[in-house]
Every structure is written in C-alpha cells, then in structure tokens.
Write a structure and sequence with these properties.
180 residues; mainly alpha; 2 helices; rod-shaped
Amino acid sequence: PPPPFAHAAAPQEAPVDLSSVMGRMLEAMNAATEGHRNTTLELARQYRDSAADSVQQTQHIYRENRRELSDLIHQLIQQNVETFQRITRENHERLAAMEIERRRQTEALMQQLTHLHNLTQQLSQQVIQLSQRILSLNAETVRSIQEAIRAVTEPSSSSSSSSNNDQIDRTLQAAEETLL
C-alpha cells in the first residue's frame, strides 16, 4: 500500500521577495541609525549641559575664591598698615620719652655745673679773702715784732725799762693773738 499522505503534493516554498527583504533591512538599519543618532544627540546634549554646569560651577567657585582672596588680601594689608602705624607710634613715643629724659638729664647737669661754678667762685673769693687776711696778719705781725725789737734795742732809763718790758709783752701777745 502506498504510504500515508503519499498522494499529497510536497509543499512548495514561496518565492523570496528580495526587494521586500532589502526594504525591511533598510528600515531596520534606518531605525538603528536613528536610534544611534538620537542616543548620540542625547549624550551630546547631556555632555553640553554638564559642561555648561561645570563652567558655571567653575566660574562661581572662581568668583567666590577671588572674593575670599580679595578679602584676605585687604585684611592683610589692613593688618600691615595697623601694625606699621602702631610700631611708628610706639617708636615716636619712645623717642619723645628719650628726648624728654635727655633734656631732663641735661638740665640737671647744667644745674650741677652752675652750682659747681658758683661754689668755685665762692671758694675763689674765700681764698682771695683768706690770702688778703693772711697778708694783713703777716704785715701786722711784722710791725709788732719790729716794734718789740725797737723797744728792746732803744736805750732807756731803768724806770722806763719796766714799762718797755710791759710794752714788749703786750706787743708779743697781740702778735700771738693776731696769728691765732
């Protein structure tokens, strides 16, 4: 007996429509290309937005840093100016105090020199007066001695001898008192 379904005709494959296949392939490739293009555009947009954000952040940070740096430089300049002014003021005060002390010491020294000069003048006057007094006393002593010698050497009577001796004693005593 013939095999089952032997009488059925073998199925025939449908003819392939190359243009249809090519069209579908082109559509798929176009879709893929469009997808890639859209993805690339999205990535580029995201990159552009990210870059713009980075630039803005960088500019903001730069402005903040510049402001902080400017404030810091201003503070340092102000501190330096204040320190310089304080040191200058302290130096002027020290110099003024030193000048006042120098003047005080100079005035004290001048007063001491004036006092010493006055003392020297007084001492000179006293020395002159003492010298004059000594010369005067020496002259009086010499006169007294001369008178005593004359009284002894002059001839006299015995009655006046006692009187002469008294005169000599008085003259010598006067000379001694003058020397003392």
